[in-house]
Design a protein that fits this description.
The complex is a heterodimer. By secondary structure, chain A is mainly alpha-helical. Helices cover 80% and strands 0% of the residues of chain A. Chain A has a single domain (60-265), classed as MetI-like fold, CATH 1.10.3720.10. By secondary structure, chain B is α/β, with parallel strands linked by helices. The chains are: A mainly alpha, B alpha/beta. Bound molecules: adenosine-5'-triphosphate (ATP) and magnesium ion.
């Protein structure tokens, strides 16, 4: 019977060579884009419309030296991050409650969907009246854009949970806390990650839109302000800084995803 | 009734079997709002330390009987008792191995087994040793860190069995636990199950489609009718223990029992 004991195959290697190649090729694409952009200026497209990578780079450098860049980045990042965190903290429990109290959810569903479909951007002026032109109104805008993502994703995740798995733990009389920590939350992890992935972009939209409408700092304000002066270079510099924040956020989520939901890779 | 079974029945107070199922009806709701009977007037008893198999055609309600016993499914009529008490009052651990393996997909083999020990409140210090012991015993050495999706179906079944054993149940409900195993592993696992069983003398209800397996392992084999299922025959297996599966195959009494069960199933009641 000893032949029954198979030897374990090695787990797949991480594939460092492939990821190096990937990084190189992505860099190549970036360089190509920048080159095309730069040469467009030399081929006669006016810099007033598209500025140029070198001008934008120069502007970013000046802004960084004066520290102004980081003030705006930090401001926008704080607004978006607080809004995202608040949406997570409120949206996940609501999503769980929606799955738990089916009837109440049925009653509330048309209202939730109506709010969800409402372009939240239209709320920005109202939020400025309610919450002022400082940080809080921007956080609330980011929050209101993202919260539905968490609510609906968590609800969906719970609807598809493996009933047998839950039943099995019920037969073993698993206490509620263990059921939550060992079965339900790990099951939801991929849905939380997916929500975060979408939420990063949306929370930035919320924060920036609120800044465009009324504020005195942040990347949205900087972009709006530059555009008002027909300073295309300033607009692009603001956009690059925003992109950097979004990319950083996505990188964090990708890390998180690798750590907690590798089992889905099957 | 055979010597072994008589002995076991003697152990359990005759009026109070370990598991009692009397005149039980179970129905599932239909999408149209009606109810479809699945188990009808099912009655049987399992004594303390007894190993009982249930066989019957697919869809006759074997898994349903186990779901009722585990408390997952309510019955409509009749009484279900464990140690003479209702299911709500029962405090003993019931270990249920589902027909489909239900492992935590994100947890390693070792963690999947460990959770059984955790739920049985086995002391922290003893858990690791217990998990290691079970992994060796189930021939899963070297796969401790693997996730379920990296295992074969038969290996996943063995992990599920490991979790069940780590849970140290007072009652075992096994729903085709070896269904995904090759004949050889099946026999090896059956032998190990018998070893655990004879060591702790727990009551076992074992659902299977493999009649030879049922006869090899059991004190009694219950035969169920097609849906709505009830127990049509209760066949005592009066073969001496310990049993060697390979020797049994040459035993005329073994062949007679297998034949008897086959003809019960063929009769189709
Ligand atoms: N959740 C359910 N809802 C409605 N009907 C169900 C449900 N589960 C099982 N049934 C029905 O109940 C009957 C008995 O099912 P059960 O799973 O107990 O059969 P079984 O004897 O275990 O069959 P098998 O040997 O194929 O596993 C089947 O006819 C099935 O269609
Ligand atoms: Mg079944």
């Amino acid at each position: 019977m000893t032949d029954l004991a198979q030897t374990a195959p090695a787990l797949p290697a991480s594939g460092t060579r492939r990821s190096l190649k990937l990084a190189r090729d992505r860099l190549l694409v970036l360089v190509l884009i920048l080159a095309a952009w730069e040469s467009a200026g030399h081929l006669g497209v006016s810099e007033i419309w598209i500025s140029s990578p070198s001008a934008v780079g120069e502007r970013l450098w000046t802004l960084a030296l004066s520290g102004e860049l980081f003030v705006h980045m930090q401001r926008t990042l704080t607004e978006a991050a607080l809004g995202l965190a608040l949406a997570f903290a409120v949206g996940v429990p609501i999503g769980i409650a929606m799955a738990r109290y089916k009837y109440a959810n049925e009653v509330a569903e048309p209202f939730i969907m109506a709010l969800y479909s409402l372009p939240r951007v239209a709320l920005a002026p109202l939020f400025i009246i309610w919450f002022g032109i400082d940080l809080f109104s921007k956080v609330m805008m980011a929050f209101s854009t993202v919260i539905f993502i968490f609510m609906l994703n968590i609800h969906e995740g719970l609807k598809t949970i493996d009933r047998d798995l839950v039943d099995l733990f019920r037969t073993m009389r698993a206490p509620r806390a263990l059921m939550l920590s060992k079965v339900i939350l790990p099951w939801l992890a991929p849905w939380v990650i997916a929500s975060l992935r979408i939420g990063i972009g949306l929370s930035l939209i919320g924060a920036v839109v609120a800044e465009l409408i009324g504020s005195s700092a942040g990347l949205g304000w900087y972009i709006e302000n530059s555009a008002g002066r027909l300073d295309t270079t300033g607009v692009f510099a603001g956009l690059v800084a925003l992109t950097a924040i979004a990319a950083g956020g996505n990188l964090l989520v990708a890390r998180l995803e690798k750590r907690i939901s590798g089992w889905r890779a099957a | 009734m055979n010597a072994v079974a008589r002995h076991l029945h003697h152990d359990a107070a005759p009026t109070k079997p370990k598991i009692g199922f009397e005149g039980v009806d179970v129905a599932y709701p239909t999408p149209e709002g009606g109810r479809i009977p699945v188990v009808s007037e099912a009655s049987f008893a399992v004594g303390k330390g007894e190993f009982v198999s249930i066989v019957g055609p697919s869809g006759c309600g074997k898994s349903t009987v186990l779901r009722v016993l585990s408390g997952l499914l309510a019955h409509e009529k009749g009484t279900v008792r464990i140690n003479g008490r209702s299911l709500e009052e029962n405090r003993e651990r019931i270990g249920f191995m589902f027909q489909r393996d239900t492992l935590l997909p994100w947890a390693s083999v070792a963690d999947n087994i460990r959770i059984g020990a955790e739920l049985a409140n086995i002391a922290h210090e003893r858990r690791d040793a217990r998990v290691a012991e079970l992994i060796g015993f189930l021939r899963l050495s070297g796969f401790e860190k693997h996730r379920p999706h990296q295992l074969s179906g038969g290996m996943r079944q063995r992990v599920a069995l490991g979790r069940l054993l780590a849970f140290e149940p007072h009652i075992y409900l096994l729903d085709e636990p070896f269904g995904a195993l090759d004949a050889q592993t099946k026999i090896a696992m059956g032998r190990e199950l018998l070893r655990v069983w004879s060591e702790y003398k727990r009551s076992v209800i074992f659902v299977t489609h493999d009649i030879e397996e049922a006869v090899t392992l059991s004190d009694r084999v219950l035969v169920m009718s097609p849906r709505p299922g009830h127990i049509v025959r209760d066949i005592a297996v009066d073969l001496p223990r310990p049993r060697d599966p390979k020797q049994l195959r040459k035993d005329a009494r073994f062949a007679d029992l297998v034949d008897a069960i086959w003809s019960e199933l063929d009769a189709g009641h």
